[in-house]
Write a structure and sequence with these properties.
about 290 residues, alpha/beta, Rossmann fold, 9-stranded mixed β-sheet, 3-stranded antiparallel β-sheet, 9 helices, 12 strands, binds S-adenosylmethionine, binds zinc ion
Length: about 290
């Protein structure tokens, strides 16, 4: 795979195109955004933030980096690669955004895939810690701190959007997708991490991951279900898995303590990798308040 950092960014203050200079991005309106030493750009103005330090914390990002780096979700990354490249011809050129990229695992895996294609990569996350970790690990993409609610990319500039265990904003996704562009969405299936949930919610065994609702104004073109048993050895691995899911915040102190006593646990991985095409224009959509974490 040949990869090039995505260039068609827009200014978060006046939506004019941003031009790349050696250490910053500038718009014709005179706004300028420095590229940090680690290689990412902060494009989330303070007036667009709902909290001082939005998104995943530094500790959650570190847990996800260790867990994904161990290869536990590689079959999911491979399914994402298949979905991105499905139906493309040799030599295809695709602009691809990971919307809520976390610490960048899935874009790095995509960049490393064995395929005859050129990808223009953009990784975006609302967590500064996530984007900083992504930029430090690889310069394969343009890495920006921003929100899915206001994607700093030109309208109709993207062929693929990945939203992996994320927070989709469908109207914004339709705006930045080219006609015929695809949304690839990964969500937890009903059995995902069932054993972990059963340990945490001992008295609510019926707590099943919600099946994701069909996105408005997108038509589903197909879905691959990735299911396997994942044996995890050692309390560190289990603690990392818990820390990167929303279950961490919902788990009681006792439940976390019980998990930390376990030396091993085999969990079910059950995820849906679905591909959607935008049909007509998007409509203003509400942000979901939570998503099942990876
Ligand atoms: C469950 S994590 C998944 C991260 C990554 N996609 C993965 O699977 O490794 C959800 C991510 O969405 C980010 N996030 C939350 N709200 C967001 C928003 N409004 N716009 C962009 N990213 C957001 C969080 O900071 C976090 O990194
Ligand atoms: Zn500007």
């Amino acid at each position: 795979m040949k990869v090039v950092p995505f260039q068609r960014l827009t200014c978060p203050l006046d939506q004019q195109p941003l031009g790349a200079e050696p250490a910053r991005w500038v718009c014709a309106g005179g706004h300028s955004f420095d590229i940090a030493g680690s290689g990412y750009t902060h494009l989330l103005p303070v007036q667009h933030k709902r909290s001082r330090d939005p998104g995943d914390s530094k500790a959650m990002v570190a847990a996800r980096r260790r867990f994904l780096g161990a290869g536990h979700y590689r079959p999911v990354a491979e399914a994402v690669q298949r979905a991105v490249l499905a139906g493309t011809e040799d030599g295809a050129e695709l602009a691809c955004l990971d919307a809520g990229c976390g610490e960048g695992y899935y874009l790095r895996e995509l960049a490393a895939a064995d395929a005859d294609a050129t990808l223009h990569l953009l990784g975006l996350d609302i967590s500064k810690w996530a984007v900083q970790a992504a930029a430090r690990q690889d310069a394969c993409a343009t890495w920006v701190v921003a929100s899915n609610a206001r994607i700093p990319a030109q309208s109709a500039s993207l062929d693929r959007i990945l939203c992996l265990f994320g927070f989709p904003v469908y109207a914004e996704f339709s705006r930045v997708l080219k006609p015929g562009g695809l949304l690839i969405k990964v969500d937890a299936g009903a059995g995902h991490l069932r054993e972990l949930r059963e340990l945490i919610y001992a008295r609510e065994k019926s707590t099943a991951a919600r099946e994701a609702a069909l996105p408005p104004h997108f038509a589903c073109l197909g879905e691959e279900r990735v299911q396997y048993a994942l044996p995890l050895e050692g309390s560190d691995n289990l603690a990392d898995l818990l820390a990167m899911t929303p279950h961490y915040h919902r788990a009681s102190v006792e439940a976390r303590e019980a998990l930390s006593q376990r030396a091993s646990l085999t969990v079910s991985v059950d995820v849906r990798v679905a591909t959607y095409r935008a049909i007509g224009g998007g409509r203003p959509g509400a942000m979901p308040q939570s998503a099942e974490g990876g």
